[in-house]
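fyi for ur records
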Amino acid sequence: MVARINRIAHVVNGSVLVLALWVALPVAASAQAAGEGSVSLAYGTMGPGAEVEDLEGNKVDVIDYVKGKPALLEFWATWCEQCEALQPQMDRIQAEYGDQINVIAVAVGVSQSVRRVKRHLEDHDPGYPYLWDARGAAVRAYNATTTSIVVMLDASGKVVYTGVGTEQKLVAAVERLLGS
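which gave:
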C-alpha cells in the first residue's frame, strides 16, 4: 500500500495529495477493521424482500419477518467462526430487546444443509427465526458477500446499520436504534 501511495505521489508530484492520502488511509482502515458500514446496502436504502424458506421448507419472504418494528438480520452459517463469536451478543439482544426488535438469522446455503441448521438449533435455540437461503436470494438482495454480515433496519424498513466480523458492537447499535 505504501509503495502504491508513493507511486501516486510521484506521478502527481503534489504534497497536498500525499498528505490527504496519509491522513485518510488510517481512518478508512479503522472503519473497515471495525466492519461497521463497510458492507451490504447503503444506509437509508429500503431493506429488500427476498424469497427464502423457513426450516420446514415453506416459501417465505425475508421482508415479512422485519415488518412492524426494527429488525436485525445476520447472514449466518453453522461453520462460521465469526458468527459463533457474535452469538453471545445476538443472544443478549434477543433476551433484552426481542420484544422491540425482530432478530432473524439468514442461514446461507453454502456448505451446510437445513438438517445441519436444525441440529445446531437443537443445541442452541436462541428464540428467533432462522430462514434458509438455499438459492442465495437474500444474499444477493442484501449484498451479503460473506457470513457474519449484520444489517439493521429501522421501523420503516430503512438500513441504519451494516457490519461484518467479530468486532461489531451489536448491542450498542441496537440500543442506538431503539433510543435506549
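Residues 1-34 have pLDDT under 50 and may be disordered. thats all i got for now
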